[in-house]
Write a structure and sequence with these properties.
Order of helices and strands: HHEHHEEHH
Radius of gyration: 20 Å
Number of helices: 6
CATH architecture of one domain: Orthogonal Bundle
CATH class of one domain: Mainly Alpha
CATH superfamily of one domain: Winged helix-like DNA-binding domain superfamily/Winged helix DNA-binding domain
Number of strands: 3
Largest sheet: 3 strands, antiparallel
Structural class: mainly alpha
Strand content: 5-15%
Oligomer: single chain
Strand order of the largest sheet: 1-3-2
Length: about 130
């Protein structure tokens, strides 16, 4: 993966994020990606090809020959990108978990438990821990 391509920068772009979402469930042909991105974003085949080429150069996706259609390419996420995304997410979560309290004590801040409620629901079983699993 290109070190200049931060995983969050790839996901900041709605089209790049959607490509990652689609490929996260498995390998897909260029035709499938054109169909999805064309319907959702109104992109042409050329625009999708350009986006995929950029993501390929950055090391986010890789391409191979589509076995079902030898003249077409099949795309998949690069494991290195997924690993970098996981590492950056873990770094942010670790920083969040180690927030500091007051300036004089510098002790880790311990928040009281807060219920996480679903919109329109008053389920007492709904807790923050349930959402994290």
């Amino acid at each position: 993966m290109d070190p200049a391509a931060h995983p969050f920068a790839v996901l900041a772009d709605p089209i790049g994020r959607r490509i990652v979402e689609v490929l996260a469930v498995g390998e897909h042909s260029a035709a499938t990606l054109v169909e999805v991105l064309g319907m959702e974003f109104g992109l042409s085949r050329t625009a999708v090809s350009h986006r995929l080429g950029t993501l390929r150069r950055l090391g986010v996706v890789s391409a191979g020959v589509d076995p079902a259609e030898p003249r077409s390419r099949s795309y998949r996420l690069e494991h290195e990108f997924v690993g970098a995304l996981e590492a950056e997410t873990e770094r942010v979560l670790r920083a969040f978990d180690h927030r500091y309290g007051s300036a004089e004590r510098r002790a880790p801040l311990v928040d009281p438990p807060r219920p996480c409620r679903r919109i329109g629901g008053d389920d007492p079983e709904s807790s923050c821990a349930a959402w994290r699993t």
